[in-house]
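To make this tangible, we now present a fold written out as tokens:
***
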Amino acid sequence: MKTNGIELEKEILDQLPAIVIAVDKNFNVIYANNAALNFMGSTPEKIIGQHCYNAIRNPQCNTPECCIAQAMADGKVHTIRSEADGGTGNRFLESTAVPLKDEKGEIVGGLEFVLDITQKVLDEKKLNEQGRTIRDMSTPTIKLWDGILVLPVVGVIDTNRAQHMMDSMLNKILASNSRAIIMDIQGVAAVDTAVANHLIKITKATKLMGCECLISGISPGVAKTLTQLGINLGSIKTKATLSDALEEAFSMINLRVVTTEAKQ
């Protein structure tokens, strides 16, 4: 390893997995480490002296959003996420730029550290997709009969899930032109003030769509909790069982359940 200070610094930077690029005030590349060269699929001879925005084709390059331009303009640290077209294809990058200063403290260029976060972004997208799938599976709005929908709810209701439930119900109501929807909460173990308020908001939203919402599956424990909390469900129709709610829904669309004796 060389003992010269500048050469030693370059050797250290060349061993970093992060992309490191330095430019002068005219955005001419004055240094690029091995990670940067590999990313761009180029060599020092082709890169040094070239404009950085021609080397890394980033949407923010050569625009006011460029973080290295901002760092050189105000002397502060700037970070941005972007997608760039490198020699190995499109990659997601997180760039942090700092100003380069001379001995007098004058800004003479900029230094940019770039992390390839492609795998992280892809993992985040995958997790978000899995989360949406799980939410869709956990809050399925089902067409039970012409004009009647049912939403079986199991587990914990938080703000995000309540919003997803509302969106799912309203979209299904619009698509099916239903007049009654049953929200069965038999699988909800605990109800507090926040959950009750979510249920009230959902029923009010469905009513604005011209659809009456019935809540079924209220257990003795949930009923006791609602009473102790002093929560008034107002004009919301509630039923102890799903079958009771379905019978009520049938009457709302002018249908009647008739039992017949089986022939001997």
